[in-house]
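Researcher: Next entry: Helix-turn-helix transcriptional regulator (Halobacillus salinarum).
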Amino acid sequence: FTGKSGSELLTEKLKKFKVKEFQSVPIVVEENVSVYDAICAMFLEDVGTLFVTNDQTLLVGVLSRKDLLRASMGNQDLTSIPVHIIMTRMPNITICKEDDLLLDAAQKLIEKQIDGLPVVKAADDGMEVIGRLTKTNITKALVELGRDEHI
Ligand code: ADP
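Model: Predicted structure:
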């Protein structure tokens, strides 16, 4: 018997959670697709963040709901604007890795005031997107902890 209190056990479990245990499938668009098609993808896939890749499937950018809303204000033809014009681009993308602690990823979401992170792995000339970590994934971890499923 360790003599640890319930909250000590909870903290111990929380500090062991890894990104890979909670990440979701990434939804990716190619950098030359139109803003219009990205909006369709966001609705159809029911996500708030899209990751943008180049023709070698390497991460080049991120698109949020507000990025797409902003691009939709005014009278531009959304089918003729490629997403690489409006995305947040590398190297200004905040990323995480599968083996990162969930807590560290959560801290990045708070510090950068963003909704999601691409989970990446190193490739020859950049980074490949292998997952998506969002505030929803963090909420799921919280619920799991509270319901004692990990203890
Ligand atoms: P929204 O804009 O819909 O509220 P976010 O708060 O996630 O969604 O995004 C705010 C801004 O930060 C957007 O311009 C978006 O492109 C950018 N952004 C989102 N995720 C990331 C990320 N992982 N790294 C860098 N910038 C990001």
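Model: Note for the record: The longest helix spans residues 135-146.
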